[in-house]
Specification:
The chain is mostly helical. The chain is built from five helices and two strands; from the N terminus they run ββααααα. The chain has helices spanning about 25-35, 45-60, 65-75, 75-85, 90-95, and strands spanning about 1-5, 10-15. A two-stranded antiparallel sheet has the order 1-2. Keywords: Cytoplasm.
Length: about 100
C-alpha cells in the first residue's frame, strides 16, 4: 500500500492513485488530485460531476459508469470528455476520492 500527501494529509492510495478511504476526502484534496490529472481549475460543472460521483458511491457502493453519469448527472457525454479528458468516469472518480468504478479499464 502506498501513501500520498495531499492537502497536508498523508493518505493511503492504491496502485493507480485512488484514495483507499473516501471519508478522508475534502475539496482541497480534490483540487490537488485534479492538478495531478492536468485539470488546473475545478468549475461548477466539475463539482456537479464530482458531487454526483460521491453521492452514487455513498448510496450504492460503486461509482457510476460513464453511461449512468451521462444519463443522470445532467452533464452530456461531450462535456464530460471536455471536463475530464481521456476517461471521464475514471478521472472524476479519482478526483472525487472514490474507488475506480467497476466498469472502468
Amino acid at each position: 500500500m502506498s501513501t500520498a500527501t495531499l492537502a497536508n494529509k498523508t493518505l493511503e492510495i492504491d496502485a493507480e492513485g485512488f484514495l483507499k478511504d473516501h471519508t478522508q476526502w475534502n475539496k482541497d484534496i480534490a483540487r490537488e488530485l485534479a492538478e495531478q490529472e492536468g485539470i488546473f481549475e475545478l468549475t461548477d460543472r466539475h463539482w456537479t460531476v464530482i458531487e454526483f460521483m460521491r453521492k452514487e458511491y455513498e448510496e450504492k457502493g460503486d461509482g457510476p459508469s460513464i453511461r449512468k453519469l451521462t444519463k443522470e448527472s445532467g452533464v452530456p457525454t461531450k462535456e464530460l470528455y471536455q471536463l475530464f479528458p481521456k476517461g471521464p468516469a475514471k478521472k472524476a472518480a479519482k478526483i472525487a476520492g472514490i474507488p475506480k468504478p467497476t466498469g472502468c479499464i
